[in-house]
Amino acid sequence: MKEIVQMKQIPSSEEEIPRIGLGTWQSFDKSPDHYKKLIEVLKYFYEYGGRVIDSSPMYGKAEKVVGDLIHQKDFPKAFLATKIWIKRKQEGIVQIQRSFEYFRVSKIDLFQIHNLVDWKLHIKTLRELKEKDKIKYIGITHYHTGAFSELENVIKKEPIDFLQIPYSIETIEAEKRLFSLCSEKKIAVIINRPFEGGELFLKVKSKPIPINIQNLGCSSWADVFLKFILANKEVTCVIPATSNPKHVVENMKAGIGRTLTQIEKSEIFKTVYDM
Q: What pTM did the predictor assign?
């Protein structure tokens, strides 16, 4: 039997989700002639225990493509996450309804407010939908560390289930500012931009993985960067985006096996920065 990725409990409930998910920014904003390859991505994603698929209206056709593909094959039920990304209440309601139509579902697992756009209005709408059992969890997101102060303020005032933020071996501000607060408030943490939009791979291009890091069980650079993130106990799930079947396998394998210790995480950090 194939090994599958680690599971992690959502702090506000007893539900567990896999620690490696699938982002869809750029990777799923595709025309139907790309569907065959994307179905292969989903096939491997599910085979390794994946369930969390994250999207947004900001991502072009991605929501519709996800909805088209997850219903084409006999795939397991996905944990669907998307976002509201528009100003004003009524426009937000229309956008939310469109997400349901694109996904072809009557209930969405996680609805997030994208980059805090008009969050004070939209959080009321999302609470109403949660009360009606149309969505299971509410979250807020941002892609930039410059928004961390505002995110902190929202978390302290509003009961939410998920926070989605950037974090990587190169961008570690969340460790100092948000992880402990999320733990205190029982908020699940989703990590976006784990590879800095691919820039991390450019920095290690053609460089072999150092032996001491290989000895920690890392077999690819994606493995290194993701295992570094998963070593933080506050991190619930990481959502690397890809449209490449080979890459999704590398990503999923990073979530298999034991979690690195803090000493091992520090060793990776120091080794990579000394290269």
A: 0.97
Q: Are 154 and 130 in contact (CB under 8 A)?
A: no
Fold of 17-274: TIM Barrel (3.20.20)
Condensed to tens digits (0 to 9), the pLDDT of residues 162-198 reads 999 999 999 999 999 999 999 999 999 999 999 999 9
Beta-sheet pairing, 79-84 with 52-54? parallel
Count, residues in the chain: 275
Using a 10 angstrom Cβ sphere, with 0-12 exposed, 13-18 middle and 19 or more buried, the burial of residue 100 is buried
Query: For residue 24, which of 65, 78, 85, 69 has the smallest C-alpha distance?
Result: 65
Residues 168, 174, 180, 184, CA torsion sign: negative
The whole-angstrom separation of Cα 140 and Cα 153 is 12
Nearest CA-CA partner of 50 in 83, 10, 23, 15: 23
